[in-house]
Design a protein that fits this description.
This protein is α/β, with parallel strands linked by helices and about 400 residues long. It contains 12 helices and 19 strands. The chain has an 8-stranded mixed β-sheet, sandwiched between helices. Strands 7-2-1-11-19-18 form a 6-stranded mixed β-sheet. Strand 13 and strand 14 form a beta hairpin. It binds flavin-adenine dinucleotide. The site of flavin-adenine dinucleotide has 33 residues, from helix 1, strand 2, strand 3, strand 17 and helix 8.
Length: about 400
Amino acid sequence: MGERPTLLIVGAGIAGLSAALAVARTGFNVVVCERATELTELGAGIQLSPNAGRVLAGLGLDNAIAEAAIEPVSIDIRNGTSGTLLASLPVREFRHRYGFPYRVIHRADLQSILVNAVRQTHGVSLILGATVADVLHRDDLYFVKLKGDRGEVITALGIVGADGVRSATRHRIDGARSPTPTGRTAWRTMIPLDNAPTSLPVGGVGLWLGPGAHLVHYPTAGGAAVNVVAIVEEDWDKPGWNTPGDYRWIAERFNTWTADVRAIVTAPTGWQKWAINTVDPEGPWSQEATTLIGDAAHAMVPFLAQGAAMAIEDAADLADCLSTHPGNVASAFAAYEAVRRPRVTRLWNAAKRAGERYHATGTTALLRNLALRAVGTRLTMTQNDWIYRWRPGPTIGDTTPTDAGRL
Ligand SMILES: Cc1cc2nc3c(=O)[nH]c(=O)nc-3n(C[C@H](O)[C@H](O)[C@H](O)COP(=O)(O)OP(=O)(O)OC[C@H]3O[C@@H](n4cnc5c(N)ncnc54)[C@H](O)[C@@H]3O)c2cc1C
């Protein structure tokens, strides 16, 4: 039997690690090159919806995720300035409606589950402190030289750029779209439960909408802390997840909001901020045997909490396309791009529209609030069915219980 060919994945974020696990099932050896010298995730949570949960379960990670994650009772949407409850989505029902729960998890927990699985998977290696210095393409093979003293060279049949919104792999693809600043920043912090305002409901996801901003909080770290994210309109654009944010600035920004929100933003002081950039999903993602996945291909605004979910779905579809195009990585990548683009573009646009609704002012905000109260939770849930009902193909396998979808 011949040696398994190698696929190189650049970046060990959620996209790169999920893709490594998925692609390892297709007869490839996988090398993941991560520029960071150690893998540390920022102190923040992440929402994992059923479509992402299905893929992670197919990769054998459901038990580990269930152990580390929390299944919130509801998503409670409130008017951020008056405090009025506009809608309450009973997300605990997702388990029955979609066959997989809606979960929230600490990013560090998700990362260590993925990294442990990668380290235990035959044929996958993870190299830290590894940035691509040079790529030579000859006779269907890529010779990828890594930066550093050792000048290691990896020979691969294809390259998958999972290197995030400011991807360097993108420069290998003619016409690939550059990141665009949105004029919004995400401010994040974690409040230890002991320091959380007593008024803060801790069993569910709280979503507060107001003019030009919104705030989300949910339990994380096994319930020991509350993850808080505030998205505000702010003209600031620097790379990196962890620029310290001045809590006096964010407190001032929310000082006309309801007392519960003010109590949340003034409770912690360890804010970090992140400039939100997007990447237009309509641009090309692939050229020859190089492709992009996750934020590198289609970074979106975080208003539907689906960026990582799309990266995880990308991994599943990429693996399917490699399986169905044996011996031809370039056509597998072209097929992957064709399969993914319509869904990702629909989601990308839906997230953008959600942002406009969340941050609406004046009459538009009034109409939004009336609509949320009138529409009812059942219809709001139905509107999102197309997002959460997505299922992975045969390489990952769909483990949705057969009695799901009764609600
Ligand atoms: C405020 C906020 C909240 C969010 N909440 C949610 C949520 O609840 N649910 C959800 O599904 N999504 C959410 N998202 C989106 C989600 O965080 C991203 O879509 C997801 O993390 C993207 O993963 P990625 O692996 O594509 O990129 P990244 O996480 O950026 O990973 C890229 C990796 O590549 C490495 N790298 C970069 N360049 C190189 C290089 N040249 N060589 C080698 N390695 C390199 C980086 O060090 C990094 O490890 C949120 C986003 C924001 C901003």
